[in-house]
Amino acid sequence: MITVRPATAADAPALAAIYGDACLHGFGTFEEAAPSSDEMARRLAEIQAYGLPYLVAEQAGKVVGLSYAKPFRPRSAYRFTVEDSIYIAPAAKGSGVGRALLSALIPACEALGMRQMVAVIGDSENHGSIGLHRAMGFSPAGAFEAVGFKHGRWVDIVFMQRALNSGRQGPPDAAGLSLSES
Questions:
Q1: Bridge partners of residue 87, in order along the sequence
Q2: Do the Cβ atoms of 122 and 28 come closer than 8 Å?
Q3: Is 51 exposed, middle or buried (0-12, 13-18, 19+ CB in 10 A)?
Q4: Regions in the chain scoring below 70 on pLDDT
């Protein structure tokens, strides 16, 4: 059974292990050095300071995945758009953890009045993430080819997008994220 809950600072070692594996062995992130538990706790606090969701999935009491929404870009005009991130422990891939996390993340962002969710997926060969996002209502929005060089090869970025709430229909019904103009 998969349980999804808000992440806490106590989860930082598990977050570091899961994300660190993606840094060191995968293409889902272009970060190449695994961040420490303290750095992951800092990043968690930064996301939560925006009031955005940062979730973990547990199986048998062990954290096996993480997902969060962050501001898409720092300019205030983007205050209704978030970018999602999902990372799954290697042993839990393909077991429904990603779907459970994204199924919780989307309504959490809708509850905040967000209108668009963007996925910036590392590696056009990342069929698991692309398929998950497609299954959850995301549409392809383009790609940048060969913009990263990791593990000895050029890596693409695939963009996907999903409307939240009523998307582009009408003005927003919330204040949105508090973003700077710098």
A1: 66
A2: yes
A3: exposed
A4: 181-182
